[in-house]
Amino acid sequence: MLSLVEQFLKLKPPKFTGAGDPEAAALWIQGLEKAFALLMCSETEKVVLAVYQLEGVASTWWRTTQGAIFPEGVAPEWNAFVEAFNGKYFSETAREMKMAEFQRLCQGSMTVDQYEAKFAELSQYAPELVENPANRVRRFRDGLRPELRSPLILLNLRNYNELYERVQMIERDQNDRAASFGSRFNSCGDNIRQGKRLIFGNRFQGPPSKKGGFNRSEPNQIDGCRFCGRQHGSAPCFPRTRVCYECRQHGHLAKDCPQRQMGQQQLPPSPQMGQNQGLLQLIAQQDGPFRPPAQGRTYAITDGKDKGKALQIEHH
Fold this sequence. Notes:
GO terms for molecular function: zinc ion binding. Keywords: Metal-binding, Zinc, Zinc-finger. It holds the Pfam family zf-CCHC. InterPro entries: Retrotrans_gag_dom (IPR005162), Znf_CCHC (IPR001878), Znf_CCHC_sf (IPR036875). It comes from Eucalyptus globulus (Tasmanian blue gum). With 316 residues, the protein is mainly alpha-helical. Helix 10 crosses helix 11. A 3-stranded antiparallel beta sheet has the order 1-2-3. A two-stranded antiparallel ribbon has the order 4-5.
């Protein structure tokens, strides 16, 4: 027996003080049973070793209860000890609470592995709910998050281990996709912080505006055309294409326009026009083509009867 105790203590079995959550009592029993299975202990040896691990109020409870559980001449049995122990530290009410917790169990924010561990832990308090393999599979599947549960419904798996393995694969694939998307998003964010333009299809997007979103790449309306300095938007640049502002013909500029020169020869500019010629040229360069107002002309109409009379018509 001494050798058995030494081997038992080398396994560092858990102790029980009788304080804490009722679940601690169930975990203590489970820990001991693992050690007992390894050492292949008999029923009596199990009780002796378990009592050795009781401390505090739990040890006091056993000293006052031992005679009622195992009267003199009755050999200790492990199942009788466990029943008495659970009656004290893991009551029927506590087991019902654990069963209700199992029935409400959902994955939530847990990983698949964490959810499966919790499912296995709580299912031992409701063995009648998972005795049927099909019921066990259904309860585990129904507690998963929707994005993991939906693909499994189509597969209609009936083996618990196969279901668990398949949902692990689905979760891993979704995590990889999320990580890949996050990497691309972070790359876009770095470009935005550096003021770089983003390309979507064949369109360029500028950095985000103060109001949110992206600024579209548009012609610079403040600086004007890079060639002539004027603001003509999307219209063609006449100086660049050598189109005359005056007659809209190619090959010469407005200052060399033959039509303007012909008009100047036929109608000499008035003193006032001469004074404003520089201003008119400046306006023509800034606001597009400008034509000076036409000079009035006078026509005389006479008849054969009265050559001395004339009707003047002023034409503008």
